[in-house]
Amino acid sequence: MATKPGIPKGTRDFSPVEMAKRNYIFDTIRGVYALYGFQQIETPAMENLSTLMGKYGEEGDKLLFKILNSGNFLAGVQAEELAEANTNHLAARLCEKGLRYDLTVPFARYVVQHRDELAMPFKRYQIQPVWRADRPQKGRYREFYQCDADVVGSDSLLNEVELMQIVDTVFTKFGVRVCIKLNNRKILTGIAEMIGAADKIVDITVAIDKLDKIGLDNVNAELAAHGIGEEAVARLQPIIQLSGTNSEKLAVMKEVLAGSETGMKGIEECEFVLDTLAGLGLHNPMELDLTLARGLNYYTGCIFEVKALDVEIGSITGGGRYDNLTGIFGMPGVSGVGISFGADRIFDVLNQLDLYPKETVTGTELLFVNFGPAEAAYCLPVMAKARQAGVRCEIYPDSAKMKKQMSYANAKAVPFVAIVGEDEMKAGKVTLKNMATGEQQLVTPEEMVNILKK
Question: Taking a C-beta distance cutoff of 8 angstroms, is the pair 406, 417 a contact?
Fold first, then answer.
């Protein structure tokens, strides 16, 4: 017996019902983005490795899927190089391209490449898959979709405010209760300065960003392993574990970071965003979370993360400001801020909470039974008019036994079946069967459409 084919770990197939659910997610997010003036773009699945490498920190670089060069990819590679088995060196020789890790870096490349065509500030959204060579686990996939919105060419914190409104609107439409977490990389830089470890800012942010996953003791161990002294780690503890309202946390941090100009700037930015949003009537809570670090090196200002309150799963949305990103591609001085919805995790959350509207997962609404050529010929124009009225319908292609056709309708969860025989054709009508109740009624094609539209 032949071995059943499979798919790579960390990837998934999606059935028609699942695709209907996913399209509901994409369409909802797309609609909210459009409400706020964002325009859609797309970029290639693969980018030059030179575009991707060095943009996500050392850990991010390890998770890039690299694509072997076409043809004889070993041409020019010496036997000694292969024997050394230096993976980083070999990857640079054998691979010129890689699958995109996220949508933000390709977007920065897009802005620089098309700078003369764009009106600034440029507000774009992008809904495409990304790939990460991560260890698959619940809620973490190697191939997944992101739904990004970014604004470049504006330093205004009103962009941060709007993005948080978008997050709140999207999850309110989904019916998912979330907590929107906010921090600022300038605050984290100020903290690093305050504990005497300014040169270890990357190590500190990467470590404390893992607090929810590995716990405080392991975070402290990781900090120590990166050469951060015992005294510095001790001074960090009250900040990591700081509790209270947003105002109380900000008041404490103003005292702690009084000697850091950068840290105080971060507090000022967070305060503006939180105060402005407080007057806009968000449906979901905003929380200042000083352990939020978003371990990517390109963030420079406010950072965001969204957690579902009723499902145990990782972050379902994240983002932040990245003033320096386009500078990497030779276009300095362009500020950017963005968010990314994790569509695959949102899909899992909506599944667990059973929050999909019924109409989003309904496919065919009406199936015409096929008794033979004459009956099919009668049904086709009736079906065409039903489709013109917006009724999703189909005819069973073969004149099979009634039982087989009804089983097909049940398998596809079709709510109504139209039955046409000699009597119906003579009367110019159809027998409409409600598959849920079993009720049947003889109706005109117009009456049938009205029933379906209700």
Answer: yes
Kindly report the average pLDDT of the chain as a whole number. 89
362-453, what's its fold? Rossmann fold (3.40.50)
Alpha carbons 438 and 429: distance in angstroms, whole number: 19
Q: Domain spans of the chain?
A: 16-353, 362-453
Q: Rounded distance, CA 14 to CA 25, Å? A: 14
159: how many CB neighbours lie within 10 A of its CB? Answer: 24
C-alpha dist (Å) from residue 227 to 186, 189, 202, 213: 22, 17, 12, 22
Confidence of residue 82 (pLDDT cuts 50, 70, 90): low
Helix (H) or strand (E) holding 264: helix 261-278
pLDDT for the residue 138 = 74
HEC per residue, 44-109: CCEEEHHHHCCCCHHHHHHCCCEEECCCCCCCCCCHHHHHHCCHHHHHHHHEEEEECCCCHHHHHH
User: How far apart are the C-alpha atoms of 286 and 306, rounded to whole Å?
Assistant: 9
Average pLDDT over residues 393-412: 96
Provide mean pLDDT across the span 202-213: 74
Distance CA 161, CA 36 (A): 12
In eight-state DSSP terms, residue 377 is H
Start-to-end CA span in the chain (Å): 51
The whole-number pLDDT of residue 195 equals 76
> Any idea which architecture 16-353 has in CATH?
2-Layer Sandwich (3.30)
Q: How far apart are CA 66 and CA 48, in angstroms?
A: 10
Distance CA 435, CA 365 (A): 11
416-419 and 366-368: which strand pairing?
parallel
Structure tokens at 209: 């960003």
Check pLDDT > 70 for residue 357: yes
Question: Beta-carbon neighbour count of residue 112 at 10 Å?
Answer: 17
